[in-house]
Design goal:
This protein has a domain of 80 residues. 0% of the residues lie in helices and 55% in strands. The chain is built from no helices and 28 strands. It has a 4-stranded antiparallel sheet with strand order 3-2-1-28, with no helix packed on it. The chain has a 4-stranded antiparallel sheet with strand order 4-5-6-7, with no helix packed on it. It is globular, with a radius of gyration of 19 Å.
Length: 362
């Protein structure tokens, strides 16, 4: 990656679902000095590229192919693209299966040249090696989950929804929406896989979806999709033990309509946490003090069904992917008090679902 003082602008890659005319991955140009979003349009042909991830060690973009049938088998796939560092154009490198259906999440371990994915429909997680050129190798580890939750339709089997390493890189953490569980794995590829270090059960019907960890690595925050709550855990990095400390609603006071929590984000200074709500169409804001949360405000997403959001580099703005209204919206963020406000910038994109910023060279 180029140094920040050489950065003039960024490409914002936008993953989508293949509905309402979407052709795959789209893009925008974000200019930090003006706080503007300018559409680049369609960038790459892809089927359900619903989650994107960048390789921080080289200019490579990875995208899930969230499907249940790949080459005639009940599984999904991942695509790799090389990025032109001046224009942001994408060149397809290769694709591999995830050995599980419906991959919905990606996490890159640049230190070990690995890519982890959560197969939502298949109920498993997988590890995929990264080759020297950033392309994808065949999966080297698959861990199948077993279990269910209390919701008859949404939790009738395992549904891993997020997978990421602990701060020190020693443990792999997985949120399983279908089982109401957080599973912590210790990686042991020399023995052919991973072993469970710890499992913690959330309250019934929570539906853990996405999570973030604070920078010391001793607290984990998880957005629970089904009941629109956020749960705070203490985390012991050596043992992987999680202990629930707090659970709060992410919905606006008095809101009684249907809603699903979706994305979660923690500021670099560990002072503000945000969770998006699909249905209420808000971003809930929490102040963080000694790891615990205090509700502070609820902000309009400036669109419907905010499935994800991401901060711009420097955290002065927040970009919201409003899937229901087919738009990507830019909000201004006050880094001192955490408040969000509309900027008026909005770009039309069919069914946006994932966001990734890449710095362009001058």
């Amino acid at each position: 990656m180029v140094s920040r003082d050489m950065i003039q602008k960024y490409v914002l890659y936008i993953g989508t679902y293949s509905v309402r005319g979407s052709r795959g991955i789209y893009g925008c140009i974000f200019e930090p000095r003006t706080g503007s979003l300018q559409p680049l349009g369609w960038m790459a042909e892809a089927v359900n590229p619903s989650f994107l991830a960048l390789n921080e060690s080289q200019p490579i973009l990875y995208s899930v192919r969230e499907v249940d049938n790949y080459l005639g088998k009940h599984m999904g796939a991942i695509d790799a693209y090389r990025i032109d560092t001046r224009s942001g154009a994408l060149e397809p490198l290769n694709e591999v299966t995830t050995l599980g259906a419906g991959p919905c999440y990606l996490s890159v371990d640049a230190r070990r040249d690995l890519l982890f994915t959560a197969n939502y429909a298949g109920g498993s997680i997988a590890a995929i090696p990264l080759q020297n050129d950033g392309s994808l190798g065949e999966p080297i580890m698959v861990a199948q989950h077993q279990g269910s939750g209390c919701h008859p339709d949404r939790q009738n089997k395992p549904h891993p929804h997020a997978v990421a390493l602990s701060r020190d890189g020693s443990l792999l953490i997985v949120a399983d929406l279908g089982m109401d569980q957080i599973l912590v794995y210790r990686l042991c590829f020399s023995k052919g896989g991973a072993s469970l270090a710890h499992v913690v059960k959330l309250h019934d019907g929570a539906g853990p979806r996405h999570f973030v960890m604070n920078h010391p690595g001793n607290h984990l925050y998880i957005a629970n999709e089904i009941d629109s709550t956020v749960t705070v855990f203490s985390f012991e990095q050596e043992s992987g033990i999680l202990r629930a400390l707090q659970t709060l609603s992410t919905l606006p006071p008095g809101y009684l309509g249907p809603s699903d929590a979706a994305e979660i984000w923690l500021s670099d200074d560990d002072r503000f946490l945000y969770v998006s709500n699909r249905g209420a169409d808000t971003l809930a804001s929490f102040a963080v003090h000694r790891g615990l949360l205090t509700p502070s405000a609820s902000y309009a997403a400036s669109g419907s069904n905010p499935i994800t959001f991401a901060s711009t580099p420097g955290e002065e703005y927040m970009v919201v992917a409003n899937q229901g209204s087919d738009q990507v919206t830019l909000l201004r963020r006050d880094r001192i008090v955490g408040a969000l406000e509309p900027t008026g910038w909005s770009v039309r994109v069919p069914a946006p679902s994932s966001l990734a910023f890449f710095p362009l060279e001058r």
